[in-house]
Amino acid sequence: MKATKAIYYLTRDTIDGWTKANGTLLAAGLAYYAIFSLAPLLVIAVSVAGLVFRKSDVTERLVKEISIVVNPRMAIAVQRAIESNNFTRGSEFATVLSVLVMLIGASILFVQVKRAINFLWGIAPQPGQGLFIVIRTQFLSFVMVLVIGVLLVVFMVVSTILVSLNQFLDFLPQNIKEVLPEADFGLIFVGFVMLFALTFKLLPDAKIAWRDVWLGAVLTSVAFTVGELLIGFFLGETSLSGAYRAAGSVLLILVWVYYSMQILLFGAKFTQVYANRYGSKVLPSKKAALIIQNLE
């Protein structure tokens, strides 16, 4: 009974706070920025993973997973985005400049995610902290971009180990051997949990305990994984590409990203509600202030 009431109040307060903060509008804004950040973000992630594996192998595996989780048309659109955006091949100066431009482009999304979560949590930087906040935000955004690359490396390594185990452990029962490759889906889920936990903990200008972050990260990952399968089915059954012709691929990505951003922000709101009701509460950092008292 107590658990049911807790779930009810958490859900009610999360939806109420989400509605008051106009979460759908925030998600739409993030989707706009994500369209410009997605290509450089993927290129950098693939390049980081390419330090360990061949870039072609990383791209192929990434496209394959997107094809499974979302749909093949989305995977083709993402593959084109990666292939059409690459580091400049020329002088060292041009290469460095290209890397910097891509880093900035990729980090824009995380800058905006931070601002959106701050707004959802009713937090804003204090006046007079402009330069400090900008530097800190940009640094954390760069870190998040690199974290995605590192997670991709870990995923590739563990996935390769699982495939190797499946090939060499012939003595295992067939039902166990069949499970090993399917563990890739579990790896994706764990990767989402880590990414969401880091996002909720590090990006906002707030103090929140790690123990209050994990439940929100896990539930957001569940919603994200299930949601991606549903939106993938929806996009696979619609004819957006045919209706909008050349803009069809861009529209597919936009719909996908918009839906994903709503899940991310809803998870962030749930994390705050849970922390304030059952945890150690979400408090503004030393360089920020609580500007809205009842967005939950």
Describe this structure in words.
The protein has 296 residues and is mainly alpha-helical. It has one domain. The protein is 79% helix and 3% strand. It is built from 10 helices and 4 strands; from the N terminus they run αααααβααβαααββ. It has helices at 2-20, 23-49, 55-69, 72-84, 92-120, 130-168, 174-202, 210-237, 240-244, 248-278; strands at 123-125, 206-207, 283-284, 288-290. It has a two-stranded antiparallel ribbon with strand order 1-4. Strands 2-3 form a two-stranded antiparallel ribbon. Helix 1 (2-20) crosses helix 10 and helix 5 (92-120) packs across helix 6. The longest helix has 39 residues, at 130-168. The relative contact order is 0.16.
- The low-confidence parts are none
- Taken from the alpha-carbon principal axes, the silhouette is globular
The order of strands across the largest sheet is: 1-4
The tally of strands reads 4
